[in-house]
Design brief:
single chain, 626 residues, 8-stranded mixed beta sheet, 4-stranded antiparallel beta sheet, 22 helices, 55% helix, globular
Length: 626
């Protein structure tokens, strides 16, 4: 949303300054380019670290504005300004193809950064490298502005005046088509990466598709055939609406990626067909960026505040079908109306299926949290974050306050708690857990114990208290610290925990700042000399085991993995989850205790894998081969 909004500001600036005349526009732009150098390098200071109680949206926007606001603003003006200067100087019909070139460069950067730059350079090197390149850009852009100013002529001014200004209905079409492309991008990305599966780098694919559609639509008219893409949209719109409730990645991901490409080709192809005379290209790009920013605000800000679940994709599909029908003519309009009705019916059905069996569904900045009751083989209430279960509780008095799912007796957590009790039967435990979930760890506590949860999402806390009884039933003295777990620990004095659990994972996504050298130093400071750190490493796509082993070795600790694969088909064991949980400690007695020694497995070292730090970590290197 930030980048779309600054892009809008840049395009608005380009449109307004064209009315100043070539000389004043060039002087103003050169002055801003010089001022932007004061923002370099684009590296945030530690003073921007959140304290825990801030509203995250405003904090993130302010951070981005303070670090890269003016440099990115000036970069965003480049597309419309260069095309306007080119048209002013050469009067050639090529300016709109420069927009395709711009998006091609964006696509190369999008794919090149994680594949080439991020593995090779740390954050400081990247920040300084980008800043040096920006200085070169500033000088080049200033020179181009100066040449453009000197090359303008009375003919270009006369040409601009005699070209008719696009009508308001046409400008509204630019706005609607651009907004629809932006909303489709964000809604599809949210759906496949948060509601279905948080596969690493999966978000890159929708953004690449979005950029490719711009490249093709604005490169040459031959790439956009209205009958072909219209026919594909007739098929894909109802299909996407039908599969909205589906959480099958292998079905949904190809369908929505294909649907996004066709939808964006339709929106951007129609946009290209409506492009005005180059004399009005800055207004054209302004309306286009306004649509993009509007779409970003609707999905990134409005949807989490207004909708309690991931409904935006269905809503977007209905509006897309309406825009599609509005672009048709003659008898084809009735076919478009039929597609609208079919899409609406299927979206309503999908919303009903999405809510079936759900007791509670609430949403905040961090995602959608749901609770669902299951009757068989024994009654159980689960908590879901997106499509991933994040704890739950066995129901009924016979199982009250009984740990299950990721914290069952045979899990890493279960074995560590049991071992600590057996080794020190009369000593209370001090436990800290980053990530509340349903609060299942509280079931392992006894009178005299102290338990501290660190949780970033207010919705999770509210649901854990209302829907589950672990927090109210626990015998331990319980404390809840709101905010990012690592930053909260960083601010606190050493706690002296017997056990510190790192369990703050949303679905299969990994908050990488929790598995770096700097994070590990904070954890070690908060545990007793013989204390233990437990990392929840259960993940379908990312192999955290060698990362944690390397961190443990740097701090003179040992790391073993406890892989638990329960096979219960009935009874409460049915709700025991398969887990990988890494035990990190200097306490050799604990590692040799039967409950742990009998189940632990050594972790293979990877000499090629560097230690993850705050300034350099690379997710590509630890993806599992599936």
């Amino acid at each position: 949303m930030f980048f779309q909004s600054i892009l809008l500001a840049g395009y608005a600036y380009a449109d307004l300054t064209t009315r100043l005349g070539a000389r004043r526009q060039a002087l103003l732009h050169v002055g801003l380019l010089a001022l932007s150098l004061a923002f370099l390098p684009i590296l945030a200071s530690s003073g921007w670290k959140p304290q825990g109680e801030e509203q995250p949206i405003a904090r993130i926007l302010l951070l981005l504005l303070a670090t890269i606001g003016l440099p990115y603003f000036l970069l965003s003006t480049t597309t419309p300004l260069l095309q306007a200067w080119y048209w002013r100087r050469f009067h050639a019909a090529v300016p709109y193809r420069l927009f395709a070139l711009s998006n091609l460069a964006s696509l190369i950067a999008l794919l090149g950064f994680p594949l080439l730059f991020e593995p090779a350079f740390d954050l400081t090197q990247l920040g300084w490298g980008w800043s040096v390149l920006f200085v070169g850009f500033a000088f080049l852009c200033a020179a181009t502005a100066w040449i453009s100013m000197n090359g303008s002529s009375e003919d270009s001014i006369h040409e601009t005046k005699k070209s008719a200004k696009p009508s308001t209905p046409v400008q509204l079409q630019w706005l609607a088509l651009s907004a629809m492309g932006s909303v489709m991008l964000l809604a599809v990305t949210n759906h496949i990466t948060q509601n279905i599966s948080s596969v690493p780098f999966l978000w890159v694919l929708p953004l690449a598709i979005y950029l490719i559609s711009f490249i093709l639509a604005f490169d040459h008219p031959r790439w956009y055939s209205r009958p072909v893409f219209g026919a594909l949209l007739v098929v894909l719109l109802p299909a996407m609406a039908y599969y909205v409730p589906s959480l099958e990645l292998k079905v949904a991901a190809p369908l929505y990626i294909a649907g996004l490409f066709v939808a964006c080709m339709f929106c951007h192809g129609e946009l290209a067909r409506l492009r005005p005379d180059p004399a009005h290209l800055t207004r054209y790009y302004l309306m286009m960026s306004l649509g993009g920013a509007l779409g970003a605000v609707l999905v990134a800000i409005v949807a989490p505040l207004v909708l309690h679940g991931y409904y935006e994709l269905g809503i977007v599909l209905v509006f897309l079908s309406l825009i599609f029908a509005a672009r048709l003519k003659g008898i084809a309009i009735w076919g478009g109306v039929a597609i609208c009705v079919a899409t609406l019916v299927l979206v309503v059905r999908g919303a009903k299926d999405y809510n079936d069996g759900v007791r509670v569904m609430e949403r905040d900045f961090y995602g959608v949290v749901r609770t669902v009751d299951h009757d068989n083989p024994v009654a159980y209430r689960s908590m879901y974050h997106g499509g991933i279960m994040h704890g739950g509780q066995l129901l009924g008095d016979a199982f009250r306050n009984t740990p299950a799912d990721y914290f069952s007796p045979t899990s890493g957590y279960g074995r560590v708690f049991r071992s600590l009790r057996e080794m020190r039967p009369k000593k209370p435990l001090s436990v800290g857990i980053i990530g509340l979930g349903a609060g299942v760890v509280a079931a392992w506590m006894r009178p005299g114990d102290a338990l501290t949860f660190y949780e970033i999402s207010p919705r999770v806390v509210d649901i854990a208290r209302r829907e589950f009884t672990f927090l109210s039933d626990t015998a331990a003295k319980t404390e809840l610290v709101m905010g990012d777990g690592r930053l909260s620990l960083e601010r606190e004095a050493p706690r002296g925990y017997d056990l510190l659990g790192i369990d703050a994972f949303s679905g299969d996504s990994i908050p990488m700042h929790l598995v770096t050298r700097e994070a590990m130093a904070i954890y070690v400071r908060h545990i007793k000399p013989e204390g233990v750190i437990v990392f929840q490493a259960t993940n379908r796509f990312v192999d955290l085991l060698p990362v944690v082993k390397r961190l443990a070795a740097e701090f003179g600790m040992e790391a073993v993995n406890i892989g638990d694969n329960p096979e219960g088909d009935d009874g409460p064991e049915y709700w025991y989850s398969s887990t990988d949980q890494i035990i990190v400690t200097r306490n050799r007695k604990l590692l040799g205790w039967p409950a742990i020694a009998d189940a632990s497995e050594p972790i293979d070292d990877r000499p090629d894998l560097p230690t993850f730090t705050d300034s350099h970590h690379n997710l590509l290197r630890i993806l599992k081969h599936r």
